[in-house]
Design brief:
Domain ABC transmembrane type-1: 62-242
Number of domains: 1
Number of helices: 9
CATH superfamily: MetI-like
Organism: Nocardioides ginsengisoli
Distance between the termini: 29 Å
Keywords: Cell membrane, Membrane, Transmembrane, Transmembrane helix, Transport
Helix content: over 70%
Number of strands: 0
Subcellular location: Cell membrane
Radius of gyration: 22 Å
Family: Belongs to the binding-protein-dependent transport system permease family.
CATH architecture: Orthogonal Bundle
CATH topology: MetI-like fold
Shape: globular
CATH class: Mainly Alpha
Order of helices and strands: HHHHHHHHH
Structural class: mainly alpha
Length: 261
């Protein structure tokens, strides 16, 4: 089963590589046909050169951004699962909490970035907070959905056994909810990366977002493109790792449900 998961990941990587080659070829061709200036859209060769020349500061910046993203994403799982559990077991609180979460999710996160910086400072904590805010909602919604959709017959069976709520949660609700939760995780993880970069755009002294802002201010378009591509590739790798983890943990399930958001 693990070999099958690895084969699927390898197949996905190869497909992504073929698509990437096609995109680079189309990119180069469009620049040549329309004679686009390098300061507007640099050719792939110029971007590669900029990446090699800037690797000494782009790679450390990438690790900072990924750290912020992963920590924010992990916090969204911990807090989201706790909040989802409360809403599943308390319909009254659910009626209060869910509309509040919808309102928070509808708030432009860029508008909240200065507030987070005021509360958490200019360091990585405010970027972790931004990653958490963006990834939190899909985690909660899918967790609530998964916990709600537990098999009624299994729940009745555990009631007959006089099993407590904790045992029922661990043996029935949580395992049943994992496929739907992972759908939420796969939505939330890339959004967490976006949140970290947005936080770095607003105010920071490190990270990929900071390097993009610096390069943009000096019209170093090649570095801008290199940084954007680097974070996109890193996000894809993170997503692939999450998919592999899902396949390993949920090998007992033929497939997972569709995401709720």
């Amino acid at each position: 089963m693990l070999d099958g998961a690895l084969r699927t990941v390898v197949r996905g990587v190869l497909t992504t590589a073929v698509v990437a080659v096609g995109v680079v070829g189309a990119w180069w061709l469009i620049i040549r046909i329309f004679d686009i200036q390098e300061y507007v859209v640099p050719p792939p060769g110029a971007v590669w050169t900029a990446f090699v020349d800037s690797a000494s500061f782009l790679w450390p910046a990438l690790w900072v951004t990924l750290y912020e993203s992963v920590v924010g994403f992990a916090l969204s799982i911990v807090v989201g699962l706790a909040l989802a559990t409360i809403m599943v077991y308390s319909p009254l609180l659910r009626g209060v909490i869910m509309p509040s979460l919808v309102g928070l999710n509808a708030t432009p996160k860029v508008a909240l970035a200065p507030v987070l910086i005021l509360w958490l400072g200019l360091g990585i904590n405010s970027k972790i907070g931004m990653a958490f805010l963006l990834s939190f909602f899909p985690v909660v919604v899918n967790a609530v959905r998964g916990l709600d959709e537990a098999d009624p017959e299994l729940l009745d069976y555990f009631r007959l056994l006089r099993a407590g709520r904790l045992r029922t949660f661990l043996k029935v609700r949580l395992p049943n909810s994992l496929p739907t939760m992972f759908d939420g995780f796969k939505i939330a993880l890339p959004i967490a990366v976006v949140g970290a970069v947005i936080g770095e755009f607003v105010a920071s002294q490190e990270g990929i977002g900071y390097q993009i802002i610096v390069a943009y201010s000096t019209f170093s378009t090649g570095i801008v493109f290199a940084a954007v591509i680097l974070i996109a590739v890193a996000s894809t790798v993170l997503y692939g790792g999450l998919v592999l983890l899902e396949r390993v943990l949920l090998r007992w399930r033929p497939s997972s449900g569709k995401p709720a958001v």
